[in-house]
Write a structure and sequence with these properties.
The chain is α/β, with parallel strands linked by helices. It contains 18 helices and 13 strands.
Length: about 475
């Protein structure tokens, strides 16, 4: 498992994973939001409250007069306690013939003889009926305990039209929305971080069983404004011969070509294969541009498309010759259907020698046997300084393993955050056991923040390696 270290975080892959799964984040947030609302709605029990305001007044000889304000205020306080007593509730139940289960509340307005009486229950009609019974029958219920007091209704009761306890979420729904979204974001980030793929340069150095050979940063295909406005992916291949290509992209392959030039001399490398675990890791693009870079430093280079099921090299050079001549690939040569001299052609625009066609073979395992491929290598090896092979994905077919036993060295193309690390290391072990030396990893299509320090260090570090190797070579010569 990947250790928890800040320098292992790749913010590009993390943000990309979040954006790819943003619908999950939104869905989880909505579930939290609606879940809180559903809970409150499910547990919500509405009650209706009917209220009236009464005035407690003193009487004398049947004539309504205010005899003493203090006396009425004191009487109002007594009435308040009476209305809320259990005795009053029992008497009211006997009088109305219905059990009074609701809540009776009486509140004296401070320093006045006014009392606000309210009755709350689950039925608006019942609340109104009971409150009217309280006002009309208080005298009978109290057994005429307050003979000199009467109650005047200031504001008559009315049937409530809406619940007194409206639903209040208290922003719990918003909090649930935010917490659920944050939880899913954290899960996606953790999954992105702990996913066992190569995301950073440090992952190549610490997790793969080979060293870093080169870092190819992401290069945008849509270079012109016209292509960007079309909102479609350009079909133009990424080649260092294109004047619109970023200098960093071109320089990366130039540096790798210089490293290969040194290894060709020190390790007598004549054949080189580029291989990856799966499809769409940029292996063909890397093979084409490495071959072009080797050609640019004066090496007579042959580029061979060794992917029999999905050949792609011909797409980089299609139409370059300006005619409709049919081109043949490696399958036609090793099967003996055509001679090497007729199959190999030279691209007029770049000067690169090519052995590539668009033929596809379902039975490639039968065509590319070890004996046939060794015979092909022996017949062409001395005609070129180096032969670069673009091979099939190792995890999908066995063609690469068959070819590897006859090839001097290999470069592993690893696209950022695509292939699992165990599969890459298994492929490296198989190549090493088959006698093919793995020179290193080409970390491909790397997305990084502009002007990042690690980006600069890698670029300059590669140049310094080449300079050191050249100095060492000159010293050995002396």
């Amino acid at each position: 498992m990947r250790e928890l270290r800040a320098d292992y975080i790749n913010w590009y892959t993390a943000v990309r994973d979040i954006l790819r799964n943003i619908w999950v984040v939104i869905l989880a947030a909505l579930v939290g939001f609606l879940g809180v609302r559903a809970y409150y709605n499910f547990t919500y029990e509405p009650y209706y409250s009917c209220s009236t305001t009464i005035a407690v007044s003193a009487t004398e000889s049947g004539i309504y007069t205010f005899s003493n304000l203090n006396k009425t205020i004191e009487a109002a306080s007594t009435f308040q306690e009476m209305f809320q007593s259990s005795y009053f509730r029992e008497k009211l139940s006997d009088l109305t013939g219905t059990e009074v289960t609701g809540n009776i509340k009486a509140q004296q307005i401070e320093e006045t003889n006014l009392i606000v009486i309210s009755y709350s229950c689950s039925s608006p009609v019942e609340a109104y009926r009971i409150l009217v019974a309280i006002v009309e029958n208080y005298n009978e219920i109290t057994d005429h305990s307050f003979k000199n007091m009467i109650i005047n209704t200031i504001s008559p009761p009315a049937v409530p039209v809406a619940p007194a306890n409206t639903i209040s979420y208290h922003n719990y729904d918003v909090i649930a929305f935010a917490l659920c979204a944050a939880a899913v974001l954290l899960i996606i980030f953790a999954y992105s971080y702990f996913r066992d793929t190569v995301k950073n340069i440090s992952d190549v150095e610490e997790m793969l069983d080979t060293k870093l050979f080169g870092v190819v940063y992401h290069e945008e295909k849509n270079k012109t404004i016209k292509s960007k406005l079309r909102f479609t992916h350009s079909k133009a291949p990424l080649m260092i011969t294109n004047i619109l290509i970023n200098y960093r992209f071109t320089e990366t392959f130039r540096v790798m070509a210089l490293k290969l030039e040194y290894l060709m001399k020190t390790k007598d490398i004549k054949t080189l294969m580029l291989v990856s675990c799966g499809e769409n890791e940029g292996k063909s693009t890397a093979a084409v541009n490495i071959a072009l870079a080797l050609l640019s430093i004066g090496k007579k280079t042959l580029l061979v498309d060794g992917d029999f099921r999905k050949p792609a090299v011909y797409k980089f050079f299609s139409g370059a010759s300006g005619n409709d001549e049919k081109y043949y690939g490696l399958g036609e040569v090793v099967s003996g259907n055509i001679s090497i001299n007729k199959a190999v052609r030279r691209d007029k625009k770049s000067g690169l020698y090519l052995l590539s066609g668009d033929q596809q073979y379902r039975n490639s395992g039968e065509i590319v046997t070890t004996a046939r491929f060794e015979k092909f290598i022996a017949s062409i090896k001395n005609q070129f300084d180096i032969i670069v092979f673009d091979t099939a994905p190792a995890a999908l077919v066995s063609d690469s393993e068959i070819m590897a036993s006859s090839i001097d060295a290999a470069l592993i193309v690893v696209r950022q955050d695509v292939a699992p690390v165990p599969e890459i290391n298994d492929m490296i072990d198989e190549l090493n056991q088959g006698g093919t030396e793995v020179l290193g990893c080409v970390f491909n299509d790397v997305h990084a923040f502009p002007f990042a320090e690690n980006e600069k260090s890698v670029s300059y570090g590669q140049s310094s390696v080449i300079q050191g190797e050249r100095q060492s070579e000159e010293g050995d010569g002396i």
